Amino acid sequence: MIYxxxxxxxxxxxxNRKRYIERSALYLEHGIDRERAIGFIIDNxxxxxxxxxxxxxxxxIAAIEIARRGVPVTSIDVSEAELQMAFLxxxxxxxDSNIRFHIGxxxxxxxxxxxxxxxTMINVLHHLEEFSGIFAEVSRVLxxxxxxxxxxxxxxxxxxxxxxxxDEGRVHDRLHAVEMDEVARxxxxxxxxxxxxxxxxxxxxxxxxxx
Length: 211
Prior knowledge:
- By secondary structure, the protein is an alpha/beta fold.
- The chain is about 35% helix and about 25% strand.
- The chain has a single domain (about 10-210), classed as Vaccinia Virus protein VP39 (Rossmann fold, 3-Layer(aba) Sandwich), CATH 3.40.50.150.
- The chain contains 7 helices and 7 strands; from the N terminus they run H-H-E-H-E-H-E-E-H-E-H-H-E-E.
């Protein structure tokens, strides 16, 4: 279902941007440069050819980075609150017109078969108890030869996240201790083949192609 963001109040975008900058500075104090990390991840996708789908958009970091590069993005997330936050971040980055927001379950993607040339799923796996259903849906909506870019934090990255959240009196949800070797082993069962792997900026990245 298409999500229609609520139009923000006059100062809401600026206040949200200020919070984002402050939080990015906090991450940087602990060693994680969020801007360089997302740039590194998206660079791994190679040339960006629309249409592009971003699964588990969250606060929009990946979708915004792709949109900044002049490529329109379709995004989907289960959380209306997260999508509204992503919209505010996209508006601050002046790329909201290049992102189409959808609310829904990635286990039942509301898109046609063989449609997308690129699907991204960034820092989502650890929030999931099981992800084979999503992999099946990614394979369905990817065009032949289309690419699937999946990334999640390294163990050191999770240690830093846990420290940041603990200092704030919060807990960082991690339902699945993701092993990228496990992910790579699963891919052929969905008609997906690993084309490259990298690990920098506290992120593991796998680039996959639909065969």
